[in-house]
Every structure is written in structure tokens, then in C-alpha cells.
Amino acid sequence: MLRNNADTPTDESGSRYTLKATLRRLRKDFRLTIISFFGLCTMLGILPFAVFRFARGEFLTGIGDCVLIAIIGGLVAYAWISGRTRLVGNVVAFVVMIGYVVLVTFTNVSVFWAFPVLSASFLLADRYLAVAVSGLTLVGIAMQPGQFSSVVELSSFVVNGALAAAFGLIFATRTEMQRRQLAAIASSDHLTGAGNRLALRTSLDRCVEQFRRRREPAGLALLDLDHFKTINDTYGHDAGDQVLIAVVRQIRACMREQDQLFRMGGEEFVLLLPATDEQGMLSALAKLHDYLRAHLHGPGGPVTVSIGAAALTAPDPQSWLTRADRALYRAKKAGRNRLEMDGTEVGGAPV
């Protein structure tokens, strides 16, 4: 069902293609891409100035530049290692703002560097923090004595800075909305709205990682509509599609907020129950099965569902799915319209 990590391509030395993995991660994580790009551009942009200032004997400014480069480089590295891109983005925006205001205060750094700082903060940080960073940057620069030759020049700086921040806010908000829409489209089944196989892989990996780190339990159930081919053959595929839509709607009516539903393909679905032990999973699935028996109908009458379930017992998503699949096979073989759990005799009402 899901490819094992062993299928990852390797080169002749046996190591994974790290460049491909890096690019794949950047494509998947927009915030990490922004942090990496901004960090690289900032470090490369500051480095020549640091060298130039050391050459001219402006050691205080040069040291400040080097410290800022080191801090940003460390934060970018931490984002890659930990994956905590939201935290790092917020910290980077705040550090850049503080570092810039300090450099303007004690050195001859141009105030016009404020504009990229203002715009970038909305791509790096959460919206409210970015607004605060922009406001502090403008206030911090505007209050510097001797930076502006007249009130008109000061007003021009503040107005242009506010416009740069406003455009940054609009662009970042619009970009985030489009990113979320595309992510939803890429991870959803177009017919039923349930998650697709790609979303399932991500969620399984997340549950397995939680189990590996904290032994957090989780349950997984495979649900298969009984005799679904008969519905398609007798009443047409449109009628079958309506049954699929209905079963998703009714499963969601019984789900908790943290539960997740995916369509594997055809008439088979996967229900993921995070933070649920075996007894809790059995109770929840029994109630779900009873609900579906009472409410799921097609054009020819009641539609029944067979369920195979398995608790997470080892950090291996493939074996987890396989055990649930074996339980589903037992439910089908025993007469359908049954709930079976891996390692537990549950049974149900046969057709």
C-alpha cells in the first residue's frame, strides 16, 4: 500500500540522494523555503559589508555584522534540524529587527535597509508578530536623533515604511491563503472530500513518530462497503458515488475532531484514531458500525460496511496497515457487515 523507505533511490555508495531529498523538503515546507532563502540572502548581503568595514577599520560595525550573520546562520540550521520553522521564522524576524535598529543606532548603516526588513517580516513571522516587528522597526528608526534632516524626510520614511509593511501583509496573507487552498486540493479526494493516499501517508508517519517518541497510542481501521460493485452495476456509477459521499458524511458525524478519514480508492476508506488505545478504539468503532447499520442506505436499500482494525504496536506504518487489512479480510470472509480487530475476536451481525 505505502512504499517502504527501502524503496528510496540510492547512489552507488548506498547513500540517499541528499540533493533530491533537500529539494523535496523545500517544496513541501513553504516556511522553511522562505527562512532558508531569506537567511542565505541576508548572510550573503551582509558579508561584503562586514569585510569592507573591517578593511576600513570600523571594527564595531564589522563585529556587529558578523554576529548577525552567525545568529541568522544558526537559526536557519536549527530550522532544518528541528523542523520548528514557525518558531524560527518568528525569532529570525525579531532578531533581524533588533539587529538592524541596533546597527542604525550605533553605526552608519542606512535607514533604507528598513524596507526589506519590513517586507520580509510578513513572510517569516506570524501575522500579528510581523505587524509588531514592523511597528517597532519604524518607531525605533524614527526616534534616532540626526537620522533625518527634516520633518518632511522623517514623514516620508514613515509613510513609505508603512506602505511597505502593508504590501508585505497583503502579499503574505494572499500567499498563505493560496498555499492552504492548494494543500487542501492536493491532499483531498475530489469526490468525497476525505483525505487521499498522500495525506494518509503523512498522517500515518506522524502517528508512528509520536509512538516512537512518547509511546502515544493510536488506532487504524479499514472500512469497505459490502457488495458495492452490485450498486454500480445495477444503479449506475452516479448512484455509487452518492453512496460514497453519504458514507463519508456519516462517518464524520461519528468522528472526534482529532480523528481523520481517508479514501484509499474505490469503496475502501481508512479511519485514523490518534491518541486512542485499543479499548477506546474498539468502543468507538462499535458505535460507528451500529450507526452505519442504521443510517447508511443506497438506492436498493441498506448498505453495510465491513471493518478491520489494528492498534499501533510498532513504529512501522506498513505493518500497521497490513494488520488492519488482515482483520478486514477476516470480516469479509466471516460474512461481511462485521467489525474485526487484529488479535481480538469482535464479530458482528452477518448479512
Description:
It is built from twelve helices and eight strands. The chain has helices at 18-28, 30-55, 59-82, 85-106, 114-124, 127-142, 151-186, 197-214, 228-235, 237-254, 278-295, 317-333; strands at residues 218-225, 260-265, 268-274, 297-298, 301-302, 305-311, 338-341, 344-348. The strands form two sheets. The chain has a six-stranded mixed beta sheet with strand order 2-3-1-6-7-8, with helices on both faces. Strand 4 and strand 5 (301-302) form a beta hairpin. Helix 4 (85-106) runs antiparallel to helix 5 and helix 5 packs antiparallel against helix 6. Mean pLDDT is 87; it is low at 1-16.
Describe this structure in a few short sentences:
The chain has helices at residues 18-28, 30-55, 59-82, 85-106, 114-124, 127-142, 151-186, 197-214, 228-235, 237-254, 278-295, 317-333, and strands at residues 218-225, 260-265, 268-274, 297-298, 301-302, 305-311, 338-341, 344-348. It is an alpha+beta fold and 351 residues long. α4 (85-106) packs parallel to α6 (127-142).
Topology:
Blueprint: H1 18-28, H2 30-55, H3 59-82, H4 85-106, H5 114-124, H6 127-142, H7 151-186, H8 197-214, E1 218-225, H9 228-235, H10 237-254, E2 260-265, E3 268-274, H11 278-295, E4 297-298, E5 301-302, E6 305-311, H12 317-333, E7 338-341, E8 344-348
Parallel strand pairs: 6-7
Antiparallel strand pairs: 1-3, 1-6, 2-3, 4-5, 7-8
Helix pairs in contact: 2-3, 3-4, 4-5, 4-6, 5-6, 5-7, 6-7, 9-10, 10-11
Biggest sheet strand order reads 2-3-1-6-7-8
Distance between the termini: 28 Å
Q: How many strand elements?
A: 8
Q: Regions with pLDDT < 50 over 5+ consecutive residues?
A: 1-16
The secondary-structure element order is HHHHHHHHEHHEEHEEEHEE
Q: In percent terms, what proportion of residues is strand?
A: 5-15%
Instruction: Estimate percent helicity.
Output: 55-70%
**What's the total helix number?**
12
Mean pLDDT: 87
Q: Label the overall shape.
A: elongated
> Sheet with the most strands?
6 strands, mixed
Structural class: alpha+beta
